[in-house]
Give the backbone structure.
Amino acid sequence: MRDIATHHRYDVGYSIRSKRAQAMTITNQDELDGLKEIGRIVANTMQAMAKAMEPGMTTRELDEIGRALLEREGALSAPQSTYDFPGATCISVNEEIAHGIPGDRVIAADDLVNIDVSASKNGYFADTGATYRVAPVRPSLDRLCRDGRQAMQIGIAQVGSGRPLAGIGRAIGKFAERRGYTLIRNLASHGIGRALHEEPAEIPTWPARGEKRRIHRGLVLTVEPFLSRGGLWATEADDGWTLYSEPRAPVVQYEHTVVATDRGAMVVTLPG
């Protein structure tokens, strides 16, 4: 579940500043094990939801699958417990690019469906997301999804002890420009670990000249670029949650929770 970069021209989404916690730094194996456990749970949940998704299913039905899996693992939905979000997971379809509320919308063939799962267990939080294609799909959407996942991996490759946070956005920005894409520039990555949203706040996944912060050893953060074929900003719907791109254009998002180490990024949101 992404951070809202409030310094842009749109005041979109909920305010997370009042709930911001200090940055989590992994200092021992117990902390790392706790983070890996919830990382595995959210990854398995998202994977199972994607596997179960089919045309004719409503987003509420898909969300109930995620809710049941989280409950079975003893995990709490983070958006629900932290922000009273009206669903266990965020499910965004086509023109919805983030924070989609599960409901009566019916999933159809050729839809782009973003599943974002964040949860907590034993005081540890993890966050993951991915955009899926409902077969059959247009080749252009297939390429957008493939490149969206690659953009995330390029950003993750910039994470490491002592490295600049701005390197994430610079690398993703170069990739997007080279491939002819745009980036949504007011939906950012964020710190995570002991809360859903922690410092460092509003980590840009686009080139940002004013970003001077550095990554320290053990820092826990998300990497989640929003790659688009023309979208530039996120705007909020009347429901107070759902976000749309402006101008309207296809958007994909892929996200992992990672820990910064001296050897690079350790991804903790892996299924297993």
